[in-house]
TrEMBL record:
It comes from the Bacteria. The keyword Transmembrane applies. Gene3D superfamilies: Homeodomain-like. This is AraC family transcriptional regulator. It comes from Corallococcus praedator. Keywords: DNA-binding, Membrane, Transcription, Transcription regulation, Transmembrane, Transmembrane helix. The keyword Metal-binding does not apply.
C-alpha cells in the first residue's frame, strides 16, 4: 500500500521544491545557458532522492517493476557543476564539452537496459551481477568523479578571481559568495556520501532506513541550492574569455611600455573614465584603440600596477582632491560620484592606497578645520 508518512513527505517536499526551481531556472531570462546547467544539476540531485522517497512511501512494494528506474545519475553531477561554474563567467562552453558526460551516458544506457528486463530477470541480475560488481564500481566512480570536478571547479574559480582582480575595477560588485555556496554544498554532499559508503562497505550493511539521515542532509542541500540559485539567477558576472588573444604583431621588446602606460593613463584622466563604476580593462582597451593584452602589459610593466590598481588610485586621488578643496558633501557621496560602487570597496581601496581609513585620513588632514560629524559617513 502506498502511504505517505513523515519520512517520505520530508524527502518528497525537498524533491518537489528542487524540481520547481529547476523548471523556473529553465525559464529565467538572465544567464540562460548557465541557468540551464544549474537546472540540470538540481534535477540530477533531485533524482538522487527519488528511490528513497518512493521506497519510504511504498511504491516499490506496490510496483516492483520500478526497480532499476534511471534515477541515479551521479556521474553527471561533477560535470554539470564544473560546466556551470565555467559558463557563468565565460562566453561559452569549452570545446568538446560533451565528452564530460560520456561516463554518465554509459551508465544511463546500462540502467535503461536493466530497467527494460522482465521482473524475474531483473531480480536475478540485481542479486548476481549488479549488487556484487556494478553498484560498487558505480559508487566509487561517482565519488572519484565528483571529487575531481570539485577540484577542477575550485582551481577555475581561483583563476577567475585573479583575472577579476586585474581586469575589473570594482570586483566587490561581483562578490563570489554564490560560488562558495555551490562548491561547499557539493563538497559536503561528497563528504557525506563517502562517509555512508564507507560504513556500508566496511563497517555494517546499511538499509534504506539507516540512510535516512543522509538523504535528509541531501534535502537540505537541495533547498539551499534552490533558494540561492534562484536568487542569483539574474546576476551577470564579468565575462572572461579563457582563450588567449592572438599574439600581437609587435614584439614586447620593441615597445616602450612606460611611455604607452603614461600616455594611456593621461587619456583616462582627461576623460575621467575612472568615475564609471564597473569600468573594465576590455572597455578601456577598446577606447584606447588597443587590445587587452597590450593594455594589461603596459599598466603592469610600464606603471608597475595592474589595471584595477591604476583606476582605483585615480579614484582615491579624486576623492582626496575634493576633500582638500573643502567640499562639504558626505564622504561616501563623494566616493560614489568618483566611481566607487559601495562603502566597503571605498574603505578597502582607500586604506590600500593611503595606509589609513578614510576617516583617519580626513581627520589627520583637517585638524585645524574639523569636519562636521554629521557630514561623516565612514
Amino acid at each position: 500500500m502506498i502511504r505517505f508518512g513523515p519520512w517520505s513527505t520530508t524527502l518528497g517536499l525537498a524533491a518537489g521544491f528542487g524540481a520547481l526551481v529547476s523548471v523556473l531556472l529553465l525559464a529565467a531570462p538572465g544567464n540562460r545557458a548557465a541557468n540551464r546547467l544549474l537546472a540540470a544539476l538540481l534535477g540530477v540531485v533531485v533524482l538522487r532522492l527519488m528511490p528513497y522517497f518512493l521506497g519510504f512511501a511504498g511504491f516499490y512494494d506496490v510496483h516492483p517493476w520500478l526497480s532499476f528506474a534511471p534515477f541515479d545519475l551521479g556521474l553527471a553531477t561533477g560535470p554539470l557543476l564544473y560546466l556551470y561554474v565555467r559558463r557563468l563567467v565565460t562566453p561559452g562552453l569549452p570545446a568538446r564539452w560533451w565528452r564530460h558526460f560520456l561516463p554518465a551516458s554509459v551508465m544511463l544506457v546500462y540502467t535503461l537496459c536493466a530497467f527494460a528486463l522482465p521482473l524475474a530477470r531483473k531480480h536475478w541480475w540485481n542479486d548476481v551481477v549488479h549488487e556484487r560488481w556494478v553498484d560498487p564500481l558505480e559508487s566509487a566512480a561517482s565519488i572519484v568523479s565528483l571529487a575531481a570536478y570539485l577540484v577542477a571547479s575550485v582551481r577555475f574559480q581561483r583563476r577567475y578571481q585573479a583575472w577579476l582582480e586585474a581586469n575589473v575595477s570594482d570586483r566587490e560588485m561581483h562578490h563570489q559568495s554564490w560560488f562558495a555556496t555551490v562548491l561547499l554544498s557539493l563538497g559536503l554532499w561528497w563528504g557525506v556520501t563517502v562517509g555512508f559508503e564507507f560504513m556500508d562497505r566496511f563497517l555494517m550493511r546499511l538499509n534504506h532506513h539507516d540512510r535516512f539521515p543522509q538523504y535528509v542532509f541531501f534535502s537540505a542541500i537541495i533547498v539551499v541550492l534552490g533558494l540561492e540559485g534562484w536568487r542569483q539567477a539574474g546576476h551577470r558576472f564579468p565575462q572572461w574569455s579563457v582563450r588567449a588573444e592572438p599574439p600581437p604583431l609587435m614584439m614586447a621588446s620593441d615597445r616602450d611600455w612606460s611611455e604607452a602606460a603614461v600616455d594611456w593613463a593621461e587619456r583616462i584622466r582627461a576623460g575621467a573614465w575612472w568615475r564609471e563604476p564597473g569600468l573594465s580593462l576590455s572597455e578601456v582597451a577598446r577606447r584606447l584603440g588597443t587590445n587587452e593584452t597590450y593594455a594589461s602589459r603596459a599598466f603592469n610593466q610600464g606603471l608597475g600596477r595592474n589595471f584595477n590598481a591604476v583606476i582605483n588610485a585615480m579614484r582615491v586621488e579624486a576623492v582626496q582632491a575634493r576633500l582638500a578643496s573643502g567640499e562639504k558633501k558626505p564622504m561616501l557621496e563623494i566616493a560614489l560620484e568618483e566611481g566607487f560602487a559601495s562603502k566597503s570597496s571605498f574603505n578597502r581601496v582607500f586604506r590600500e592606497h593611503t595606509g589609513q581609513s578614510p576617516t583617519s585620513w580626513r581627520t589627520a588632514h583637517f585638524r585645524e578645520n574639523p569636519i562636521n560629524p554629521r557630514v561623516e559617513t565612514t
